[in-house]
Structure formats: C-alpha cells, structure tokens
C-alpha cells in the first residue's frame, strides 16, 4: 500500500513540476510577463532566475501531494484552484528555504549552491549587498505565493479565503523561525519546546495548510474538522522532523542532497542532537561532543566520531523509534476518516506517515 501511495505522490509531483516551470515562464516572458516588473535592471531578473532554479531544483513536493489528496477526500472530479494553491505552497516553501539558508549559513541546498551563497559567489567583495539580495529574493517568493491565489480565476470569496490561509500560515512560520533561534539559547530545551518549534516552523505550512487549502479549493469548510486535521498534522509533522534530524546525522549525503551534520555544526538542538546530549556518555565522549557542538569548522572525521558515539548509545535507534511511533499515531487518526471521506484518499493519508518516517532524503 505504501508503494501505491508513492505512485500517487510521484504522479502529483510530475504534473506539478511541469506546471511550476510554466508558471515561471509566465513571469519572465519577454513578450510581456504576468508580473509587472521593470524594463531595466539586472537584479530583479536575476532574483527570478534564482527563485526559478531553487524552486524547480528538487524537493519531495509533499505539500503538493497533501493538497491534492485533501481535495480527493471529498471529490474525484477536477478541482479548480488546486494548481494555483500548489504553486502558492511551493513558493512559500522557497521563501522559507532561502531564509533558512541565510540564518544557518548553509552553502548547499538540494545538491547545488543555496541562494545566499550564489549571491556571495557573484559579489564576493560586497557581502552586505549579497545578503540583502538573498533576503529580498526570499521576500519576493513570499509575496508571489499570495499573488498567485489572488490573481487566479477562482471565485473571489474562495480566493480570498485561500490567500488568508496562506498569509496566516506564513506569519506562523516566521514565528516558528523565532522559536527555532530561541531553542538554541541557554540549556538544552525540553521535548515540549522542540514540538512547538516543529509545529510552528514546519507542520502548519507543510501539512495543516495544504490540508485546509485542498478542502477549501473543493468548496468544503475545513473548520468543523479542525481538531482532527491538527492531530494528524501534528503527529505527522513530528515524525517528519524526527526523520529529518536522523538523516542530518546518519543519512547518505549523496542522497540527502546536502552536507550532513549541519545541526551539530550550527549548535542546533534538534531532536537527534538533544538525544545525543542526553545520552549517558563518558568524559572522553562528552569532550568530543562539546567540541563539535556549534563548531562550523567541525570536520568530517570529527563528525564520524560523533556519529559513532551516537550509535554506541542507541541515539539512531531511539530517534527512529520515535519517528515510527508518531507516524503510527498519524495513521490511526487518518483511519477514522473512513466513515466520512473517500476511501482511496483516506488510504493515502493512512500510509503516507510510514513512508515519511522511512524516507532517505
């Protein structure tokens, strides 16, 4: 059944990637793009080039899949507005990734230079200009994510409701970024704080908003189902983040598409790093961990030593076990939807969490 869910997700991704590329073509069409940009100036055009490259470079398109399957919960007919909603969601994702890379100083994203590093390479003698350009590129993606809904052919009331959902979740995601930075100040945070970071920074825009947008596009008010949608999204979001943290320490960099150990090097108290710091390590092991945590120059040999310590104390197994547990919780919530919604879409939501908790990138 997981294989069937993956096939559905792959088909959503294939169709969307072609549509997303066409969307960027409409923005940059020299004969008169849909975006009313200036006739002069290299910087705006370069920003759009980088947004296009970053947006089309890869990604699992989990949000797009959730969106389409949410609409499929209530209808098997084509739903106007889903394409615009998918573009909106992925533009907001691009915004978030660019700002993440600015905050974290990440050089690589999806197997290629991040947007801030692309600008740094272009303007090595103007670091402030390069930083400003990266910030503006991320901001442009955020505003485009609202524009694509408000300029669609949807009924005005439905377009406004969907744009309001995106605006709200965009603000929530920024709040999550604040929490993300606060987490790494002071003592090691407890699990409730980590869950709050996950909820605000990723879960609401990656899972809950696509669920709501899919129902809104299908002309169904999601408010009566808010509690169960939140339960599903929260459990799946935690499972997804636990797997992300596991991959950052134990994954294959060639498959993940970026350097490993970014959480450790940046001093980020992720689920995996927190479990590592809480392990019953001896003095020599603790010395290695303390030296590596927050050291951006931590080399691969040291990272290998940290990884060995983590495996010796079962951190890899415990983090993965937690991811599996939350995935099962999400699946159970989705299973209760069978009494109300279409069986094939419910089956997808039942099986997606297991895939999320076992993916390799």
Automatic annotation (TrEMBL):
Keywords, in A-Z order: Isoprene biosynthesis, Magnesium, Metal-binding, Transferase
InterPro entries linked to this entry: Isoprenoid_synthase_dom_sf, Polyprenyl_synt, Polyprenyl_synt_CS
Annotated SUPFAM superfamilies: Terpenoid synthases
Record-listed E.C. numbers: 2.5.1.1, 2.5.1.10, 2.5.1.29
Domain of life, source organism: Bacteria
Protein's GO biological process: isoprenoid biosynthetic process
Pfam family, one: polyprenyl_synt
Enzyme's top EC category: transferase
Co-factor(s): Mg(2+)
Alphabetized GO MF terms: (2E,6E)-farnesyl diphosphate synthase activity; dimethylallyltranstransferase activity; geranylgeranyl diphosphate synthase activity; metal ion binding
UniProt family annotation: Belongs to the FPP/GGPP synthase family.
This protein's name: Geranylgeranyl diphosphate synthase type I
Species this chain originates from: Kitasatospora gansuensis
Taxon lineage: Bacteria, Bacillati, Actinomycetota, Actinomycetes, Kitasatosporales
């Amino acid at each position: 059944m997981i294989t069937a869910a993956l096939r559905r997700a792959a088909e959503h991704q294939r169709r969307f990637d072609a549509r997303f590329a066409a969307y960027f073509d409409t923005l940059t069409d020299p004969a008169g793009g849909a975006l009313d940009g200036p006739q002069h100036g290299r910087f705006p055009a370069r920003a759009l080039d980088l947004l296009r490259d970053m947006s089309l470079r890869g990604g699992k398109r989990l949000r797009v899949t959730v969106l389409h399957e949410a609409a499929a919960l209530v209808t098997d007919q084509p739903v106007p507005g889903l394409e615009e909603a998918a573009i909106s969601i992925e533009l907001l994702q691009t915004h978030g990734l660019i700002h993440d890379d600015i905050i974290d100083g990440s050089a690589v994203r999806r197997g290629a230079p991040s947007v801030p590093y692309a600008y740094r390479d272009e303007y090595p003698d103007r670091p402030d200009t390069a930083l400003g350009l990266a910030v503006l590129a991320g901001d442009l993606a955020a505003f485009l994510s609202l524009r694509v809904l408000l300029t669609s052919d949807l009924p005005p009331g439905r377009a406004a409701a969907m744009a309001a959902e995106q605006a709200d979740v965009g603000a929530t995601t920024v709040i999550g970024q604040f929490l993300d930075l606060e987490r790494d100040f002071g003592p090691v945070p407890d699990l409730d704080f980590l869950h709050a970071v996950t909820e605000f920074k990723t879960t609401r825009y990656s899972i809950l908003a696509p669920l709501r947008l899919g129902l809104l596009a299908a002309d169904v008010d999601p408010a009566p189902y808010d509690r169960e949608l939140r339960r599903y999204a929260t459990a799946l979001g935690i499972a997804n983040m636990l797997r992300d943290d596991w991959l950052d320490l134990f994954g294959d960099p060639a498959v993940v598409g970026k350097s490993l150990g970014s959480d450790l090097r940046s001093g980020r108290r992720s689920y995996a790093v927190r479990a590592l710091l809480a392990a019953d390590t001896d003095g020599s092991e603790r010395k290695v961990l303390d030296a590596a945590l927050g050291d951006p120059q931590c080399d691969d040999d040291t990272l290998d030593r940290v990884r060995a310590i983590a495996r010796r104390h079962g951190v890899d197994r415990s983090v993965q076990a937690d991811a599996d547990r939350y995935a099962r919780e999400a699946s159970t919530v989705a299973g209760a939807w069978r009494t109300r919604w279409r069986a094939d879409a419910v089956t997808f939501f039942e099986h997606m969490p297991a895939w999320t908790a076992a993916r390799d990138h």
